[in-house]
Amino acid sequence: MYSKVPGAELINRLKKFTTFMDMADDTWRYIFIFNPVNIYYFTGTMQDGILFIQRDEEPVYFVKRSVERAAEEIRYCKVMAYKELQDIKNELALNVFFPAFVDKSFVTIKLLEEFNSQFEFGKIYSCDTALNMCRSVKSKYELDILKEAGAIHADIMTNIVPELLTEDISERDAALLIFNEFMKNGHQGIVRFERAGMEFQTVNVAFGESSLNIYKYDIPAGITGLYAASPFFGSSKITLKQNDLITIPSVFGINGYHSVCTYCYAFNSLIDYIRRQHEHCKTLKDLAVLILKSGAKASDIYTEIMDNIHPEIQGTFMGLGDSTLTHLGRGTGLAIDEFPIISKNNDKPLVENMVINLGFFSSLEGYGVTGMQHTYIVTAEGGVSINGQADDVIVAGKYL
User: Fold this and answer.
1) Which of 13, 98, 299, 311 has a beta carbon 3.0–4.6 Å from 29's, enabling a disulfide?
2) Could you give the CA distance from residue 279 to residue 296 in angstroms, rounded to a whole number?
3) pLDDT for the residue 3
4) SS (H, E, C) 44-107
5) Model confidence over 185-231: pLDDT tens digits?
6) CA atoms of 309 and 289, how far apart (whole Å)
7) Which ranges constitute the DSSP H helices of the chain?
8) Residue 93, pLDDT score
9) Radius of gyration over alpha carbons of the chain, in Å?
10) Burial class (CB in 10 A: 0-12, 13-18, 19+), 73
């Protein structure tokens, strides 16, 4: 299940990235990568350090902790120890007449100021666009990991979770049981985001209207959570009752890569009103999967879905009131909110082997949130799910 990233894979990633950099600015010369996830993408290790990429030169990974582990895990670039930014400056002796490029979406203003106070580059630009494009299109190596994560994820959610949902169990205890199953089956134990400050803790369990309690993670399926400082997992006070709608968003990761899905369950029976709402979401999902093709614009997919909303879920689709989302999903890989975003404002065409999580939900006052979310590979024929096709509400371990 765990394996080091092959050296050839890392070399190909660097070549792809520098090609995108050439397309963005063919005069680039120096790039500094600070985000540990981006560093892992290029090196196969995740230490406290800075990756330096120079045109036509071998990359150098400057590491504070741990140089020994970096040297053991890394496959192809030079590893050097440092304690202060001044050490890097002295080692490189760069011509600061040339601008520097950094991953600005990660770097704080404070860090950027400290960096430039040492190096004194005339200009510092962003390399985020090239990074986004590079990471968004997955290699076979990445797709194989994602498919493995997705298959395990789907099996747990369809075959194991329904048996864990027993009368009077609390949301928190159900979440802990599911988390335990994830860990037993190889989950990496962490969920990563691109956006600073965004958080999610593997699995949330919401019974009934608890899923209408929105928090900052931007899917319509909310949660009461443990308390205000930790709106995750589930409440210890909310327990499962007969006929409850159960909404469970979750993320399963292997080797850094994430499978994202939301499954809905009903305890003992499902009322027709919820079933109809769920079917309307499923119809939109089926349409999106058909048009999730390479070459299709993200904005066109979003518009097509919004133009086909059934009247019965107008006003409830993807949230209520001001909490309604303006996107259907995001890219998924080493983070669960990568490029691209499926929204009306993204006119970029999709590329084959992008991986995107898509959600289709209806928020129902008095009942909770119903719908589905899966992670799809973009192909020339449409989207292919990595984590199952179980799009119906699951009742007592069987599909309705």
Assistant:
1) 98
2) 25
3) 74
4) CCCCEEEEEEECCCCCEEEEEECHHHHHHHCCCCEEEECCCHHHHHHHHCCCCCCCEEECCCCC
5) 999 999 999 988 888 889 999 999 999 998 877 888 989 989 888 88
6) 15
7) 7-24, 36-43, 67-73, 85-92, 109-119, 128-136, 140-155, 161-164, 171-184, 272-291, 298-306
8) 85
9) 22
10) middle
pTM attached to this predicted model = 0.94
Spatial neighbors of 161 by CB under 8 A, at least 6 apart, are 178, 181, 248, 263, 265, 394
First to last CA, the chain: 34
d(CA 7, CA 3): 12
Look-up of token digits 């994560």: 149
- Nearest by Cα to 62 from 39, 93, 37, 95: 39
pLDDT on residue 19: 96
251 three-state secondary structure = strand
φ/ψ of residue 368, rounded to 5: 125, -160
| Confidence band of 400 (pLDDT split at 50, 70, 90) | very low
What is the reported pLDDT for 396? 56
Q: Which whole number is the average pLDDT over 326-344?
A: 96
Asked if 173 and 203 touch (Cβ cutoff 8 Å), the reply is no
Tokens of 137: 């299109």
